[in-house]
Amino acid sequence: KLQPSASNPNQDYCEFLLELAEFEKNVSRNIYKHNAYRKAASVLSHHPERITSGEQARQLAGVGRKIADKIDEFLQTGHLRKLDKIRASDVAVATAELSRVSGIGPAKARQLIDGGVRTLEELRARPELLNRHQTLGLRYVTEFESRIPRQEVAAIERHVLQRVAELDGRYRATVCGSYRRGAESSGDVDLLITHPDYTSDGGAETGRGRSAAGSATARGRGRSAGGRLLGAVVDHLSQDGFVTDTLSQGDSKFMGVCRLPGDQYTTHRRLDIRLVPHDQYHCAVLYFTGSDEFNRKSRMSPASVERISLSVGKGPHGRGPRTRPWGPLPTLREILSTEAGLIRDFLVETGQV
Ligand code: DCP
Ligand code: MG
Ligand code: MN
Questions:
Q1: Which residues, 6 or more positions from 76, have their beta carbon under 8 angstroms from its beta carbon?
Q2: What are the tens digits of pLDDT across the range 72-120?
Q3: Cβ atoms of residues 183 and 326 within 8 Å
Q4: If 305 and its partner were Cys, which of 133, 193, 234, 332 is the partner (CB 3.0–4.6 Å)?
Q5: Active-site residue flag, 70
């Protein structure tokens, strides 16, 4: 039986051979190599004296040249490059697995792996290791991974715009993100809201003309004017059960979970709500419509108009095409022609010009 113990003078070899054996079985799925490593470990574990070279090990039945070389490498360097690589790729696999959970990034994944947690199943057994956001991320992991069809985002849009209008008709709300770019499906719903009582010059902080929605609410108490305006919307959207959970909430940003009432749409969806100052609303709409890549390129240089048109159909580094459900990047000129009218209407409507 393979039981390297303190009385086994070749225990260190047995340990790395068994680790290699596990890798061959579980990852490479090479049962011959698996058996070869186990056989060698077994033979070494029964050898009563310390083996001090690969050559010496080769004299034993079941130890071939490759394993002998590994014993030499281990004796000379204290570790095995093959095993270092395997361990590193194990960490990469576990990091990718754990990062499926909303709220778990590379640092948290690393911390969990160091604590012996490598799979979502193992994570479910250790709820004390997760904060609120991560706990909900784990609960909804498969639901959040499924794309939201455009038709469902449209239904969410109708629901939210109606609920917000009925709370306070002075709110303005737009669903941005991939949906506003015309994507056939979205990863989440990005709702942008504003209110005339909240402006960038701090007018809201004076409390002048505060709206009904801006008064203290369960979520809004002790918050800034912005926090109260956002809190009132979140409260209202929670009242009918549409907003089911909060991942995080600040004065200007809510990250949470929603599900439309009724039984047509049953999957829990990620919902982001951002409140922006009234006078910055249309710039914010542009920003939150993205894409993130478009935003990066827009900020590059005065020549960005040309660069964006040149890079249409190319990946982020100009290396070959990248699939984009919403088609090629628009040029700044194209963006301007569709946004300018909306911005002008907004300025006129709100008496800013
Ligand atoms: N954004 C950005 N830079 C980032 C992240 C986001 O400029 N690093 C902006 C542009 C995005 C918008 O915010 O379009 C919304 O972010 P999402 O992460 O929700 O991305 P999308 O809505 O574009 O795609 P998805 O369908 O995956 O949600
Ligand atoms: Mg989005
Ligand atoms: Mn988002």
A1: none
A2: 999 999 999 999 999 998 898 999 999 999 999 989 999 999 999 999 9
A3: yes
A4: 332
A5: yes
Residue 204 belongs to what H/E stretch?
Answer: none
Q: Which of 214, 285, 279 is nearest to 251 (CA)?
A: 214
Residues with CB under 6 A from ligand 1: 177-178, 186-188, 190, 288, 290-292, 295
Distance 189 CA to ligand 3 centre (A): 6
Of the bound ligands, which one is closest to the alpha carbon of residue 289? 1
DSSP state, residue 203: G
Output the pLDDT for position 318. Answer: 37
ipTM of the complex: 0.98
Q: What is the DSSP letter of 262?
A: S
Q: Write out pLDDT tens, residues 178-191.
A: 999 999 999 999 99
| Strand pairing class (269-275; 189-194) | parallel
Ligand having the closest approach to the CA of 284: 1
Residues with CB under 5 A from ligand 3 (ion): 188, 190, 272
pLDDT tens for 122-170 read 999 999 999 999 999 999 999 999 999 999 999 999 999 999 999 999 9
SS3 content of the chain, % helix, strand, coil (to 5): 55, 10, 35
Residue 176 Cα to ligand 3 middle (Å): 9
Could you tell me the pTM of the whole model?
0.72
Question: CA-based angle 169:175:181, to the nearest 5?
Answer: 145
- Of the residues 1, 33, 70, 314, only one is catalytic, namely 70
- Residue 347 has φ and ψ, to the nearest 5°, of -65, -40
